[in-house]
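Archive entry. Fields below.
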Amino acid sequence: MANVTLSHFLVVGGLLFALGLFTVLTRRNAVAVLMGVELLLNAANVNLVAFNHYVVGGIAGQTFTLFVIVLAAAEAAVGLAIVLSIFHTFKTIDVRAADLMRE
Amino acid sequence: MEHPLNELGPVVVHQVSYLWLIPLFPAVGAFVNSLFGIRLQRALGKRAVHLIAIGMMALSFAVAVRAFLELYALAPGERFLSQTLWRMLTAGPLSFDLGFALDPLSMMMVLIITFIGTLIHVFSTGYMADEPSYWRFFAYLNLFVFAMLLLVMGDNFALMFFGWEGVGLASYLLISFWYTDVEKAKAGMKAFVVNRFGDFGFILGLFLLFWTLGGVWEPRADVRSLAYHPEIGTSAVAGAANPFFAVGPKASEGEHPVKIGPTLNFRELRDQVVIESTGVAEHLKHQRVWGFALMAVVGILLFVGAMGKSAQIPLYVWLPDAMAGPTPVSALIHAATMVTAGVYMVARLSYLYALSPTAMGWVAAIGGLTAFFAATIGFFQYDIKKVLAYSTVSQLGFMFVGVGVGAFWAGTYHLLTHAFFKACLFLGSGSVILGCHHEQDMRQMGGLKKHMPITAWTYLIACWAIAGFPWASGFYSKDEILWKAFAARDLAFLGHSTPWLGPAIFLLGILTATGTSFYMFRSYYMTFTGRYRGGAGHAEEHDEDPHSAHAAPHHATAAHPQDNVDPNGGHGAAHGKKDDHGHGAHAADAGHGHGHHGGTPHESPLSITAVLVVLAAGSVLASLLGVPAAWTHHEPLLERWLAPSLPAEVRFAEFPHSTEILFQGLGVGAAVVGWFFARLLFKDGRSRVPADLKKRFFGFWTVVYNKYYVDEAYHAVVVRPSLFLARFLFWFDQHVIDWLVNFAAWLGRLVANIDGAIDTYVVDGAVNAVAGITGEAGRALRRIETGRITTYLYGLTLGSLLVVLFNFLFR
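PREDICTED_STRUCTURE:
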């Protein structure tokens, strides 16, 4: 098996981030946007673990990752609550409808 | 230099506190009657109005008498009462007070004004009884007395000038009292305008005097030389440092400090001029301005004021026209008091006039000429008031001869006697006019002695007085004047000594005296003797009257509106200019006239006759004041009384008393000659000689009857050019000035429009542009703010990428 290096992990992390960002920017469905945000967080998690393994050592990266996973769960809960609230208000979950900040 | 002025000291002043009451009372009367008179008259009748007016006059007279008693009790040299109320103005060296002063001269004037004034107020109650604006008349009359009292009582030139103008105003108001008649309104305006000419001279003289007393303009090198500084006995503060020699009251070595320098105060002026050691008199005497002796210029300029006020050639023309006013006004203002203001002024400034023989000669010569000239006009007038008017002008000329030749007391004495007999004559004529139902033409009178004996007798007594028969007052004053004129040697003409001028004036005066006697008795005989001609008997005269042929253009306004509109309201002088009207007027109002003349004339009420009797008695008794020294070897009473006020001494040639008595005989002879011819020609209206003479010398008669066409000459020389100038100026105003104004306005509008455009387009444009740009920028930037979270995320991503990119590029 070919030797797996830090770069491979970083490429995977970067791809994940790109995909997440693409999802967040392009999807109109608020739930899909939240899913994109999950991708972004996990891209960060991959990076954290990779750097911890190859560069720093110890378990600080893994610990951070755990925090991020917990945070992501909480974020999803709050995010879904907001999506529900948006749906109540606009009768849709299209993010384009929620443009009240413009006023 | 030997001069009697050496002996004179400063005036001793006695302060009293009641002098202000004398002018105050008439002022209050004028105030009350002018503001509330109309209501009083409606509510309480005319009685209330005249009680106020007469009451105020009587109170004023009472205070004047009180002042006289106090003055009389003082030593002759110390007769000077003074009261200063407050300082009215201070400006540099100029300052004057609201202050009153009574010395023997002004005391005499005040007594005349208040006494005769009161009498004439009483007379007016009878004369003006039918007048609807009764209150207005009495308000004006009181106003006049107030102004006249200020004129004579003011202790400085400023107050005197205030009074001087005030009497002019009152005179104007009263002459045009019946202002609905255009002729009368015109007469008032004429009086006012002619007086303005005189006042101009007066005020110029005043400026010049003040200026020269200041001395700052002195052209010589030794401007502030010690020569002008007072010496021992008088005083001055360090004058050398002071450009006005010395100003302000001084601490002094003597008991009475003398103020040196410019002043308006008569007493201060008198002190510094009269007291030799101040050097002021010398200074003034040798002062020259533009090559003329300064005192001559000052004296003549001041006299120009007197010429206007006292109706001397050439400014006398207003006085005969002033007869348009009610007869009491003619008596009070235009005979007894106001017109003598000029004489009073010259007498008041006797010490100044004494410094300049040229000024004196000028005054005397003008006086003599006026006396003669006016008397000749008086010969042929038919309007009784016109005769008296010219007689007044003539007598004023006599007064100026008196003060002009240096016989100041004699001129003043004539003023006093004239006030009595001329007031009596005027009021007598008023009584006649009233009795004849407002007829003034003597040809419509005659035989009135039967109907109005008291008026006739008093008129006759006054005629005696003015003609100069002994034991009536005019004799004493007139002969004293003529005698002094004959004896005068100090007169000069334009700086050249002319010792013949005095005798020449005497000759003129004697001729005038003859003439005076003639025309006065003519008026008496025409009015009071013969047959009553009212209503008829003047038909044939119509054809002879030159006015049918020579009616002057400005007399062409024929019938009085009043004559036709209000036949019962002709009121006295309604016929004031009747004989000027030509016979068009006579014919026009013949119907109305005959209606009147149908009634017999009647004696006037008691209020009129009583006044006449008092005045006639006065015109006889006044002679006691002036019994000549040639008879008693004492100075006449009035001369002694006035001496402190008239410090100037003028040189007269010495003659024995017998010569003086001879000259008095000449004077009486002149009067007798005049009387004799008047009696011969006019007694009972029987003689045909006057008519024959008139036919023979018709051309000459016409010229004199029309007053030598002086009015017409004035019209041509002064009035017409003035009107032309006025019209030209009007045209100039309409066309040139207005054009300039309009052009300026147009220019202003043009500039304003340009300015407006700049404002609209440049300034507002800049402001609007800033606002627009901001707005547009806002509108453009607004598009970015979609409010959608996605958009912001795009921005965030782009920004992050850029940061990363820059991080690589510019490391």
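CURATOR_NOTE: Residues 710-782 of chain B form the longest helix (73 residues).
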